[in-house]
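Input:
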Amino acid sequence: MKSKRLNRVTIKDIAHEAGVSYSTVSRVLNHYEHVRPDKRQRVWSAVTRLGYVANPQARSLAGGRSHMVGLLVPELGNAYIGQVVRGIDEALAEAQYELMLYTTHRQRTKESTFVRTLTYGMTDGLLLLVPTEPQAYLETLHEERFPYVVIDHQGFDDFSPTVIAKNYQAAFDATRYLIELGHRRIGFIRGLKHLSSAIERHKGYRAALEAHGLEYDPSLVVDGEFLQGPSYAATQALLDRPDPPTAIFASNDLSAFGAMDAVRVRGLSIPDDISILGFDDIPQAASVRPALTTVRQPLVEMGRIAVQLLFTYIEDPDRPCERIELDTALVIRDSCAPPAR
Amino acid sequence: MKSKRLNRVTIKDIAHEAGVSYSTVSRVLNHYEHVRPDKRQRVWSAVTRLGYVANPQARSLAGGRSHMVGLLVPELGNAYIGQVVRGIDEALAEAQYELMLYTTHRQRTKESTFVRTLTYGMTDGLLLLVPTEPQAYLETLHEERFPYVVIDHQGFDDFSPTVIAKNYQAAFDATRYLIELGHRRIGFIRGLKHLSSAIERHKGYRAALEAHGLEYDPSLVVDGEFLQGPSYAATQALLDRPDPPTAIFASNDLSAFGAMDAVRVRGLSIPDDISILGFDDIPQAASVRPALTTVRQPLVEMGRIAVQLLFTYIEDPDRPCERIELDTALVIRDSCAPPAR
DNA sequence: TGCGATCTTGAAAGCGTTTGCAATCCACTG
DNA sequence: CAGTGGATTGCAAACGCTTTCAAGATCGCA
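Output:
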């Protein structure tokens, strides 16, 4: 019944091996400063010699850090998310932290229970990736001074630390690029309407048009939900117009793929007949044909930075709210060209 | 420094509230049988009234279950993996288990340390998704009777519990489908050579050809590494032949996408000029144009079943090794048709 | 050389649970 | 009605580690 416990090396074994008390070992392990150098040395060597690995459970039970952070994601299996998680994962591994994963559909279980489980010493902090309705628990977390960082979403409050890309500027630049290529009718495939990233991109698109003396035409804007299927259908609608756009700016790469399909299904060519521009620069964007011109978000880096930011809050939960905005870059490949004529 | 502990509800509070000893509460919580019904009742009601949530750390420290399982994946952000994880996640949530995520690149850190961390009471069991080189630690795990289940890979030993699809049969059927459509020259894009799933699919392809009196031509087999980019290049090579295949069977959907790109870049049409058949049926397969005809693996279910199987081993680590093979289904969409002429 | 101040360090008290052990019940048996 | 044995239940001892407390060491400076 009870799984046999492996003969684990404990802090006491180290203490014995190094000839110090186990409290001293603990202090060394936790980088406590007042320990004589020679003992510190002896402890570390005993640690490596015996191959000691701390027991996170005991650690956090005793009131220390658990060395785990929770990550809340809406889903998995999405390249965009995969990239961000990669960054998170790397940064965590470097700091010897473990990752507890939660997918959003779990939230349907009592949310209070969820937050409680997480904050009850199970994790030292929480990472929220494009949360959908975080208001409910974010306020609680903030009041409890429980460390957390929101990734790629913002604007619902003014106390949540955030890491996000400069969506507005990125969309503005991308749209300008299309305009400078000579396009005058540029379609826009919008993302999930409640996400700030989608909203900002839309704003950037619109602002760029207007800044260049082009009229913003709402009928050129369709909804793609950040998904390939819906974007395919939405693009069809765009192409059905008597005056179809000569370029389409999609809110993410997946949407761009949907648009590409729709264009090709009509026998039109990319970029000769229609230009397509994406957003995110997921790995697939480079291997698709024609290779997708897109806005590169530093996805992996966003993950890494979020972790680093989280650590600062774990270190000092009272630090003031910090928000980090990352630069993007336009990656020019083969899916955009000057309009035909 | 030390994060303030929230005023957590403990087992003792429940005991007090229900008027029983805390050991009894523990027994109720763990579904121990010899507890009088009325007390059991009182305990449960106290639990819900106070909103008690067990502390996993303390639980596993005390030698019980940690209610966490570890999941080892090669990467994230891959739809195939996303689906499997979804199943795992659902099944775990139902059983009130938590998920600890490890991505393979972490394995580069001392592997012994990795296995130790995991088995030292941190998790109750381990799920290995398409592990790349598991031999090293699998034997240790098995000897320690540490519960684990391997998903979608097998053949490296005869003691590892496994959940996998019937790759051979699936590939056989898919190939036969193409043959029955009238194709005689069928290209094959092979997956990662060291994965049993890739090997089985290749065998199935070959067997189907030979079963229908078609010669197996090695030059029609190219490597796609289960990736879109390499498959694109590989398909180019196939199409460069004086007698290009009239159909291409890709080892997974991503490879199929690469093949589709290659075909289209030549101005050829799918499925009129060339048929493409995939494997996996990731969500994208349905939203791509033309919609991809592919072999559906019950990905989500594989995840669920793996969890269930793992639970049986957590229950009884000495159970004999069990292997579950899941059926697949051919999903016919729009990317395959009889050969031209 | 002496005294307070600052370092170091070990002992011990938990952290929230599980579980072995032993005592207490309780229903029957004869 | 005493005796028997299983069903219940409480106590206390871990589990491995952090942290407080106080005592012993050491150091600086007069």
